[in-house]
């Protein structure tokens, strides 16, 4: 488990702060008065029933959703720094018959040169270096549509880590991944936290990994219902009330 070492102080650590954030779409309040504090080196999990506002919160942090309140990123000794954010959306689907390879996908995202014109040696080396961060070099020539759930998550994660972000946002990264793949993915995220100076914010409906890997857990249901360690949140009365009212986990 990656243990948060900052104890709530930002004096020696970069941090992401969400303060009094609210989102209203039309006449409907999606989120109200959300407060969240994430240090670099921490993995923070957002949990909650479907429709609770978790993805809306991620979109607000990404700048894709209008909101009221304050979202800020700070580094000791620096002012007005804008966070570099890496993002892995909920697993997209690809046609198994599509000839696009992992190398093609990277080339399209990382270069203005059309992939069908070929990939230069320098670009291929850069792609392999990106995949090396997630131990995925062997995937470089595989067709994207034939990747397993865990392999696809590794590829998308490698893309999100180029260039290296301050904050890595993952929307349901464990969805469509088998139990063995979940463990491997969470171990990889833990290694990334230890290797790079960044923080991870992820949504998930799979609670079994939280005790081992999450530094903080936020229970979201149109706002922050409760937060704390995985044990504090999963054992709380609020957790059972929210999921009982919504018809189960």
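-> sequence recovered:
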């Amino acid at each position: 488990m990656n243990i948060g070492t900052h104890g709530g102080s930002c004096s020696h650590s970069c941090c992401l702060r969400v303060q009094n954030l609210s989102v209203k779409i039309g006449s409907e309040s999606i989120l109200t008065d959300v407060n969240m504090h994430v240090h670099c080196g921490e993995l923070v999990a957002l949990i909650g029933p479907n429709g609770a506002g978790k993805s809306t919160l991620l979109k607000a942090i990404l700048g894709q959703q209008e909101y009221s309140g304050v979202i800020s990123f700070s580094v000791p000794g620096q002012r007005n720094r804008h966070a570099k954010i890496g993002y892995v959306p909920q697993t997209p689907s690809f046609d198994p018959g599509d000839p696009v390879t992992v190398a093609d996908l990277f080339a399209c995202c990382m270069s203005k040169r059309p992939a069908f014109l070929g990939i230069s040696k320098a670009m291929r080396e850069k792609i392999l270096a990106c995949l090396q961060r997630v131990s995925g070099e062997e995937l470089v020539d595989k067709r994207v549509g034939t990747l397993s759930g865990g392999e696809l998550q590794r590829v998308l994660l490698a893309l999100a880590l180029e260039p290296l972000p301050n904050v890595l946002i993952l929307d349901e990264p464990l969805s469509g991944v088998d139990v063995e793949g979940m463990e491997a993915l969470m171990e990889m995220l833990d290694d990334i936290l230890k290797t790079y100076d960044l923080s991870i914010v992820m949504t998930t409906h799979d609670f079994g990994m939280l005790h081992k890997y999450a530094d903080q857990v936020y229970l979201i249901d149109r706002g922050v219902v409760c937060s704390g360690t995985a044990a504090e949140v999963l054992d709380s009365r609020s957790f059972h009330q929210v999921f009982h009212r919504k018809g189960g986990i």
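Confidence is low (pLDDT under 50) at residues 1-8.
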